[in-house]
Amino acid sequence: MNNLDLIDSICGTCGKEVGLIELRAYVNDGYSNASAINYFDVFMCPRCKSGSVLNMKLPYRQGRSDMEVQMLKDSAVNNRDMYVLSPGPLPMPRVKNLPDDIESAWEEVLNAGGASAWTAAELMCRKILMHVSVDQFDMEAGLSFASYVKKLDEERFFPRMMMPVVDGIRERGNRATHDLASTTREQAMKTLDVTHHVLRTIYEISI
Ligand SMILES: [Zn+2]
């Protein structure tokens, strides 16, 4: 569980899984007509020593005690939608031994996710899964997303327990591309998880 002294994160600068350490917090609530308390906090990565800034707005109510504000902050920091961390934490780890083109595509996924651009991150994951299928199994380019996922499944990339998630992203994949439906963080993270699993299996573990 996170608290305001330490936030578990994948550092947006060096990509390592770390606990970001709090250096200094600021609270701006001195305005008489304020509707929110502006709270920001500076954190440092213990690995690369770079800084990240956390910004959040807490609902303002006159006369709220310091202890109440502290409780609000502690609960908000455990809800990823309540604050913005810059640079954004990477949503998934980097993968070793990737070919250059896939590495830059995966980096784009991580940056998009780090900036909460979940639809862009998910679309890029689909491109990666198609690319991998063409590359590894001599599949034709330009087929449906479902056919590439089916091929990866036939090649036993997915453990049985992962299949409900895989089926979910395959079905949504075929729907969302043409109707511009946007993606939630939760849905996109499933696609990122599956893509990470495939990339690790091919390039990091199989070597
Ligand atoms: Zn770092």
Describe the protein.
It is elongated, with a radius of gyration of 20 Å. It has 207 residues and is α+β, with helices and mostly antiparallel strands. Helix content is 45%, strand content 19%. It has six helices and five strands. It has two domains: 6-86, no CATH class; 100-205. It has a five-stranded antiparallel sheet, with helices on one face. It binds zinc ion (ZN). Zinc ion (ZN) binds at residues 11, 13-14, 16, 45, 47-48, 50.
Report the principal-axis shape. elongated
What is the end-to-end distance? 35 Å
Are there runs of 5+ residues with pLDDT below 50, and where? none
Strand proportion, as a percent range, falls in 15-25%
Question: In a few lines, what is going on in this structure?
Answer:
By secondary structure, this protein is an alpha+beta fold.
What's the arrangement of secondary structure elements?
Elements: E1 6-10, E2 17-28, E3 36-44, E4 51-59, H1 66-76, E5 83-86, H2 100-114, H3 118-137, H4 145-154, H5 163-179, H6 185-205
Antiparallel strand pairs: 1-2, 2-3, 3-4, 4-5
The chain binds zinc ion.
Residues 11, 13-14, 16, 45, 47-48, 50 line the site of zinc ion (ZN).
Q: What labels describe this entry?
A:
6 helices, binds zinc ion, 207 residues, alpha+beta, 2 domains, 5 strands, elongated, five-stranded antiparallel β-sheet
